[in-house]
Amino acid sequence: MPDNITYYIAILALIIIGVIAAKKLVSCLVKSIVLLVLLAAAAFIYFQYIA
What is d(CA 25, CA 7) in angstroms, rounded to the nearest whole number? Predict the structure, then answer.
């Protein structure tokens, strides 16, 4: 169970970094691509290590 906390922190850090990066980007299309990449990375971490 304590190992899962590490992955939750990693996902949280991924989301925070993504939001900061998305705010600095101008194009809506680029924001969408960044969001999709972050969601894919979060899903990979979840299914690879938590589920």
Answer: 27
Residue 34: how many other CB atoms lie within 10 Å = 16
- Distance CA(7)–CA(51), nearest Å, equals 11
Query: Using an 8 Å Cβ cutoff, are 24 and 15 in contact?
Result: no
Q: What 3 state SS string does 1-51 have?
A: CHHHHHHHHHHHHHHHHHHHHHHHCCCHHHHHHHHHHHHHHHHHHHHHHHC
pTM for the structure as a whole: 0.52
Instruction: Read off the pLDDT band of 37 (50, 70, 90).
Output: confident
Task: Give the CA distances from residue 34 to residues 6, 13, 27, 46, in Å, rounded to whole numbers and listed in that order.
Answer: 23, 15, 11, 18
